[in-house]
Amino acid sequence: MEAFQTHRGVLAPLDTANVDTDQIIAKQFLKSIKRTGFGEYLFYDWRYKADGSPNADFPLNRPAFQKASILVARNNFGCGSSREHAVWAVHQYGFKAVIAPRKGEGNARIPGFADIFRNNSGKNGLLTVELGEAEVEEIFQMIGRFPGLEATVDLDEQRVVLHLDEEISFHFDIDPAVKKRLYHGLDDIGTTLQEKAAIDAFEKKHDAQFAAGKK
Question: Mean pLDDT across the stretch 75-96?
Fold first, then answer.
């Protein structure tokens, strides 16, 4: 898995809440048994018109955002199904991080990301950054004023820095285990292999006990 430590790139706005996985990667593009090639179909029904021509009104098709690598969305991004392809499509398109706001508090709280999407992201090298609602609103406003604005997402410092004449930065929280996975590029297999010595010792002991029991 590709490691994520720090990344600087252009911010792209997706000013829509509750973006579900069928909008991220529609079901007709899930026929491949490979884990590659999904990026070109990201947001397909929004990026293209019915005749197949690009939709000039969709943010990712605007010149200022065509090389964007940090997506700024609204709350509950990645809701809907559990399809892991949604994360693959976002990552393979070229986004390294997605920023979204939490909304409300307590039982009324709506997270920035759907749980399954966030969990799948951490296993596939895509960093999800949840900020406060006012903080994300400020980022949207800055992108509107400065199309093509760049930001740095620093996983080690857990900060998002907007590169303006006067820098604006935001701290974000992240589960330490997910941070470690992303920072070292460890997917499930890589995480398991970190315990290889203990696994080998257990298997050696188990084999010896099994052999002794057969005598």
Answer: 95
